[in-house]
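FORM 7B: Structural annotation worksheet

SECTION A. Query
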Amino acid sequence: MSDKGRVFKAHFTINDNVHHCQLNEHFTTARRDNESLHHFILRLLGFCLFAYRHDLTLCDAREKPQRDVYAKNDFDDYELVIEVFTGDIKVLHKLYREAQQLYVITVLPVDSELQHWLLAHQRVELIAIENAFIERLEAMLARSLAWHVSVDSDEISITANDVFVRSALQVSWF
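SECTION B. Predicted structure
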């Protein structure tokens, strides 16, 4: 169970210029036990990048094992999984077998072991974001996440509390 130090109210306005849509997402989310802020923010960014899909679930605590962001089809199979890379290739092997489409989200520069693994597997796509961007988001994190997110084919930017941060975005499906 989450304590109050890990619970966040999210209010995201997302301008997705790739999929030509504007979305307003409002929900309550929580960091998992032992989840770093770095991982939590990458998970939220993965959600923002795919928010145009209205069937996403952001880490359901009832799911075992927990997935970062996912969508299931009508047969309760994982149609899409967006997983934050933690350095454990074994986790990716398991997800690769379970998901029809797997996206791995990480920071730039991309880990060499991950790069080699990605080359050897179909149905896996990479999302890479600058580490300095994640660190700036960590510094401005508050209990209420009022983010204005803009997604372009090669860039993501967030405005929150009158602070603007931007990152190059490497996504292999754009």
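SECTION C. Observations
Residues 128 and 170 are 5 Å apart (CA to CA). The radius of gyration is 15 Å.

SECTION D. Sign-off
Analyst initials: ____
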